[in-house]
Design a protein that fits this description.
Family: Belongs to the aspartate-semialdehyde dehydrogenase family.
CATH topology of the largest domain: Dihydrodipicolinate Reductase, domain 2
Largest sheet: 7 strands, parallel
CATH superfamily of the largest domain: Dihydrodipicolinate Reductase, domain 2
Pfam families: Semialdhyde_dh (PF01118), Semialdhyde_dhC (PF02774)
Order of helices and strands: EHEEEEEHEEEHEHHEEHEHEEH
Bound molecules: NADP nicotinamide-adenine-dinucleotide phosphate
Catalytic activity: L-aspartate 4-semialdehyde + phosphate + NADP(+) = 4-phospho-L-aspartate + NADPH + H(+)
Number of helices: 8
Low-confidence stretches: none
Distance between the termini: 14 Å
CATH architecture of the largest domain: 2-Layer Sandwich
Subunit structure: Homodimer.
Keywords: Amino-acid biosynthesis, Diaminopimelate biosynthesis, Lysine biosynthesis, Methionine biosynthesis, NADP, Oxidoreductase, Threonine biosynthesis
Number of strands: 15
Mean pLDDT: 97
Strand content: 15-25%
Length: about 325
């Protein structure tokens, strides 16, 4: 008997989680959906039934849950994830609240497995997830000593309010969520600025990459940019390896792996794009070139659906990893 909760069930990520639970036929005997008071009472079709969204309260965390998919923002996670954990659940937490806690696993199933010192597992930042999947392949094949990221992040990464701001701009209205118009624009500003000039989003990519790859010494830097794309993040990675393989060797590593899809045929206009990644579960890589300005360095362009692999799918894959592990124990 497996009892599962989805918190933030009415959000962009939560809705994808529910779709994936159904699509992948996750063996949950009971699924309970939570939101804030605002959306409580909404009806959500799930398999052959209709689930009614409930308002999350402290008392409801003691509902005998085995697993909780938590996707309702950092402050909701801060309050409720430890309560679910205390009542015996394993929480897969989509917010940044616990990601850098040394006791808490930060997991991308293609890269690492949870150690479960705590009953909370953190789901990494969306751009980080799609970046570490190809980086891990390069690490295993050639060793990685440095990476510089530049991101092109879709407005769905800001949740419902990001999509609403893009639509407002298209109608000629002022933004509400972003400090400037996102329509016809690009904002080098995701999350708040730290004193050193980096944003928290950039710091997340830098810190989380080191933690997931288990390489605290890795040189990483990032510039994160919001672009007027509805869904699908792109990341330009500049990677320095320990050796100097041919570009074709990098392509072969990606071609041989089931973790990524290689789309690298520029002569025929074949390369990864947010539009073609949106709605897909895979991480796409292409535009692989040698960077002549630095020894052992390469450009790799990566796209993925930020709501799927960047959020809901990665969380559901972690859940599958846990369920398979439990099956193995029986
Ligand atoms: N969007 C992405 O690409 C992405 C990627 C990685 C991680 N994440 C993270 O995933 C989380 C959700 O993001 P999203 O894009 O799905 O946001 P969203 O579309 O704005 O949805 C937020 C969800 O949280 C619920 N919620 C808000 N306050 C709550 C409370 N006090 N108690 C219970 N539920 C509450 C909302 O319920 P109501 O309907 O009642 O308001 C809604 O279901 C965030 O932590 C975000 O940082 C998002």
């Amino acid at each position: 008997m497996v009892k599962l909760a989805v918190v933030g069930a009415t959000g962009l990520v939560g809705r994808k989680m529910i779709e994936l639970l159904e699509k992948k036929d996750i063996p949950a005997d009971e699924v309970v959906l939570f939101s804030s008071k605002r959306s409580a009472g909404l009806e959500v079709p799930f398999k052959d039934r209709t689930l009614i969204v409930e308002e999350l309260t402290e008392e409801k965390t003691d509902g005998g849950f085995d697993y909780v998919l938590m996707s309702a923002g950092g402050s909701t996670s801060q309050t409720f994830s430890p309560l679910f954990e205390r009542h015996g659940a394993i929480v897969i937490d989509n917010s940044s609240a616990f990601r850098m806690d040394p006791e808490i696993d930060l997991v991308v199933p293609e890269v690492n497995t949870p150690q479960l010192k705590r009953g909370i597992i953190a789901n990494p930042n969306c751009s980080t997830i799609q970046s570490v999947v190809p980086l891990k392949l390069l690490e295993d094949a050639f060793g990685v000593s440095r990476v510089a990221y530049t991101t092109y992040q879709a407005v769905s990464g800001s949740g419902v309010k990001g999509i609403e701001d893009l639509a407002r701009g298209e109608r000629g209205e002022e933004p509400v969520n972003y400090p400037h118009a996102i329509y016809n624009n690009a904002l080098p500003h995701i999350d708040v600025f730290d004193e050193d000039g980096y944003t928290k989003e950039e710091k997340k990519m830098m810190d989380e990459t080191r933690k997931i790859l288990g390489k605290p010494e890795l040189d990483v830097t990032a510039t994160c940019v919001r672009v007027p794309v509805e869904n699908g993040h792109a990341v330009a990675m500049n990677v320095t390896l320990n050796t100097s393989p041919a570009v074709s060797q990098l392509q072969q590593v990606f071609r041989d792996s089931s973790a990524v899809v290689l789309q690298d045929d520029p002569a025929n206009n074949v390369y990864p794009m947010p539009l073609t990644a949106s709605g897909q579960e895979e991480v796409f890589v292409g535009r692989i070139r040698k960077d002549g300005s630095l020894p052992n360095s390469y450009h790799v362009w990566v796209t993925s659906d930020n709501l799927l692999k960047g959020a809901a799918l990665n969380a559901v894959q972690i859940l599958e990893q846990l369920l398979n592990r439990n099956e193995g124990l029986e």
